[in-house]
Automatic annotation (TrEMBL):
<protein>
    <submittedName>
        <fullName>DUF2461 domain-containing protein</fullName>
    </submittedName>
</protein>
<dbReference type="InterPro" id="IPR015996">
    <property type="entry name" value="UCP028451"/>
</dbReference>
<dbReference type="Pfam" id="PF09365">
    <property type="entry name" value="DUF2461"/>
</dbReference>
<dbReference type="InterPro" id="IPR012808">
    <property type="entry name" value="CHP02453"/>
</dbReference>
Amino acid sequence: MSSYFSDKTFKFLRALARNNTKAWFEDHRADYEAHLKAPFQRLITDLQPDLLAISTHYRADPRGNGGSLFRIHRDTRFSNDKTPYKTWGGARFFHARSKQVPAPSFYLHVQPGNSFLGAGIWHPEPEVQRRIREFIVDNPAGWETFARAPGFKRKYEFWGESLVRPPRGYPADHPLIDDLKRKDFTAGMALDDAIVLGPRLRQAVVAGFAGLAPLMDYLCASLDLEF
């Protein structure tokens, strides 16, 4: 088993965080290509059969444009932070119908001291939130089967924002009110730097995604998507 990322990956990302300018990046573009982009694309390619074993409806697309890998350039149009580049690498493993309808995704984030994997749907539109909440109310046992399972709670944590008060139309004493108050329906786990830079990263990602499959299956069902 070979590694994908190396100390040079994290060295580049740390240096980019200190020198987040177009001039610096262009001077070090070769480092980006060699130590972050190319190994990430290789990992995405290698994950294709693993992801298909989890769900035939999810895609690991290694293309540089339009694929799973996030662009290194930031969209600064609506941000007060005008630094041009992300100081991390990320990949989204998307549903085959994600270009037609909102759909949950698997995600991998590579950053020194802050790497993680996750799954779910982040910042969904109000109508999507409503559909997921209604599905939880109508199918509480299915949600609790994985979300309350000791193994799931030991390995993963739910992430994202929640409402301060119950959403309109839901009683404050509902047994799953904490879940119904969620604005994001995502969960994940941190990845140690040693795992990210070591030879077992692929296995760790596959195991992590497989453990999150029940969440993804449930969210897909709530949105009438195949899993």
